[in-house]
Amino acid sequence: MSDFEDIQIFVRVAELGNLSAAGRELRHSAAVVSNRIARLEERLGVRLLNRTTRRVNLTTEGDVYYRHCLRILAEMQEAENAIANQKNTTRGPVTLTCPIAFGNKYVAPIIPKFVEKNPDVQIRLHLSDRLLDLLQDKVDLAIRIAELKESSLIVRKLAANKRMLVASPAYLKRHGIPRAPGDLLHHNCLLLRFPGSRQYQWTLHGAETEGPVTLSVSGSMDSDNSEVLTRWCLDGHGIALKSHWEVGDHIRNGQLQVVLPDYTPPAHAVYALYPENRYLPTRVRAFVDFLVSEFGGTPPWDKS
């Protein structure tokens, strides 16, 4: 095993904080991973990691070495991508993450179409309502439906997306229809919760003279899965803040109705995000262009 591979192993151990986890990802035993780290430490003459029974942490020297190793690996990847682009071939894996419900409903069904046109590309779809770190988790591309913060990521808008408050007719019959934003404080609000989520605060925009209203809402049930919230809402258990792509069909067939239609949450468009890279792999660029072509114009959830 080369020194370069030792560096790759060290970086993954540092990022995952666990020898066994790094070994499983890299297809090595924990003993092999431990030996390679020991070999690095012996060659450098310093301890890189502090080990406990459950976790490993970087020493001060290890942190310095880790940051330099990241730059080395990034430059090596960029060099390989540059060569691949010069060949102008669309081949290799594309790792994609997107929200569970959106991925199930709109992304997974169109992936076979892309693969049929690009048989040398493998799409690895990871569905999660949590926001992954594209660099740390080695993800090529993310689809996000959110108000984006400034970052070093490249952003391409795929589609517009309205959001709204919804509830079932049965829930509103039992508990009454909210007439003003403040009424929501007395209703069971179904919330999407995960680290970093701010859905416990709902912002609504009314008439221009009123301006936005932000409420700290609460409820008896929350989940880190948006599909669960939709199910609870359909079953009459509360009010939820939902995207049009999630509930448009349910509104049209009368299973849900819009609450406070004169007060709308900020729209969250659908975006594709990927790391800034001078030599973006052809396969990733091709898949982003494919997504733009599929969702551009009138998005599928607004066509019916």
TrEMBL record:
SUPFAM superfamilies per the UniProt record, alphabetical: Periplasmic binding protein-like II, Winged helix' DNA-binding domain
Ranges for domain HTH lysR-type: 1-59
Keyword match Transcription regulation: yes
UniProt xrefs under CDD domains: PBP2_CrgA_like
PROSITE patterns hit by this protein: HTH_LYSR
Classification via InterPro entries: LysR-type_TF_proteobact-type (IPR058163), LysR_HTH_N (IPR000847), LysR_subst-bd (IPR005119), WH-like_DNA-bd_sf (IPR036388), WH_DNA-bd_sf (IPR036390)
Stored PANTHER family: HTH-TYPE TRANSCRIPTIONAL ACTIVATOR TTDR-RELATED, HTH-TYPE TRANSCRIPTIONAL REGULATOR
Family to which the UniProt record says this protein belongs: Belongs to the LysR transcriptional regulatory family.
Protein name according to UniProt: LysR family transcriptional regulator
